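Before surveying the methods themselves, it helps to consider a single example record, giving the amino acid sequence and backbone structure tokens:
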Amino acid sequence: MTEYKNTNKLFQEKSPYLLQHAHNPVDWYPWGIEAFEKATQEDKPIFLSIGYSTCHWCHVMERESFEDQEVANILNDYYISIKVDREERPDIDHIYMSICQALTGSGGWPLTIIMTPDKKPFFTGTYFPKYGKMGLMGLIDILSKIAETWSHSKHLLYQSGDEITNAIKSTNQKNKANSLTENDIKSGVLGLLQSFDSTYGGFGFAPKFPMPHNLMLLLRYWKKYKDQKALEIVEKSLVSMYHGGIFDHIGFGFSRYSTDRQWLAPHFEKMLYDNALLSITYSEAYQATGKKVFGDTAEKIFEYILRDMTSSEGGFYSAEDADSEGEEGKFYTWTKNEIESLLEPSDAELFCNYYDITSEGNFEGKNIPNLIKISKDVSLQEKEHLNFCRQKLFDYREQRIHPYKDDKILTSWNGLMIAALSFGSRVLGNENYLRCAEKAVNFIISNLRDENGKLLARYRDGESAYPGYIDDYAFLIWGLIELYEASHKSEYLKYALDFNQQLIDDFWDKEKGGLFLYSKDSEQLLLRPKDSYDGSTPSGNSVSTMNFLRLARLTGRFELEEFAKKQFESFGDMIKASPTSHTFFLMSYLFSSADTKDVVIVGELQKSDTKKMIEKINSSFLPHLIFHVTTGNGESKDLTNVVPFLADHKSINDSAAAYICKNFSCQEPITDLNEFEKAIE
């Protein structure tokens, strides 16, 4: 058993991030009443540090400062120190990150906040070294200066905290209603076209993030407006990202972002949400183009997730670190000598030429395997050799010390992966993906609900905690809708409706519209914000808007469309001001305004005519189509309890029949497959 010199109050927590700091000499507290009462009693300011377990600069700041006794002495003598895992408490993180961005013009993690005992911040920042360097203030200087000011002019810091809080509250309340139009979609797409990197794909320069929902919007824009340029941008970006080092060509899966313009050198951490959203986007591109590279990439992402990021119970882990053995990227990089020692000479030559492996290296003297310089494809025989080599290198790499894995299970990110696997099972024809999605939903239903059936946000080591946030509901409902369309099982649609009602009951702003970040039953913080920004993940509000629209059409509960309409009005002003920051919201608006098709297939699931109709839908890019499959057996009776209008649909002469309604006008049922294909396209 390891003996530690120091142990603080974090050692009883479940969060991997908090546990990483449990043996710092800093007397850390988790966020809670005890810490704030102690700060009040001892009349000390609060030092709040927010991060997550796979954050590279969080590790750096810990090594430099939080493991340092000199820094710890100042914090322990003059402050009450609180650690927060942003992935467990996105409500706390969102509030103080917004304040940091407002005050400094930027943000990031680790997030550093110094505030009064009543939670009002007067100093914000991100990473600080122990001593000042590279234009950054030193943490010791900051802490010492503020401690001195607190001792002699405390009222000035309280006054600053009040002014900052009041200003942020005022901004938070400015939520002007404004109706969206088709021009807002076009403005968003134009903004993407203008920021598109025609040389390397993606948007902007460096650092470069995948931003899959930007590409999802462009695919839908291409589908509706027949704009070939939009499709070209999607294809160029997806191929470039796959070719780059941001994709792990040995073990698969995508890293969080690229530090350079050409996607070569990633920040090596891998996040569940990135891989979920990217696998959806690659699957959609495969539907839209039929190009094998997109389907293959989605399959490789799923292989990584199911191999390395799935618990035995069926939930999905959160992330893998960039660092191993204290060095970023060490696990993922190679020397040419290593590869030559592991492979036969001819195989080594083939592999090194194909994946840009050189003696000089392409990354800090080592090599990140990539396909950026590939100008033509290789033969089938060479592909087989390359895959043999890749597997051999993968087996060797498995013996290395792995990066740290954050094994907490978040309802929100699991919802995204459930959506991805469900959709992928349809597009790629893989039943195992569907089984894994169902297993994950069963895990959440069994382990991540409270006694009232409401969602909880985090599971780890047998413990579930924290009332669900908007993203937990929005992303899981999305996953359940996709799972329903993949499995045709009514229970998933019913769960989606039930959770959607909980979301409306507990999060909806009845005065101004929009959904709050956290529930009316959760801890009430400094602010109760509503977020619309589609960042590394789409916002809970934009996804919920899409869910409202899809559930309305799937179930005939068209009152949900009124909630979507109110969403467009409530956030319209913000969307108009920055359409490229609201691309998923624009997808939802496009869904609401596009030509709609609703398809009901009536037939036995195992019969070939029913299968062929389903396969045609699954293989076609039809983002604005809603469909049911009803069979007339017991399962269909369960389904008609959820969707009563399906009871009117019957098979014809024992053949599968498709009932298609377009823009609220219904056609005669179709039994001929060729006619069906023409009708849905």
In short: The first helix runs from residue 16 to 20.
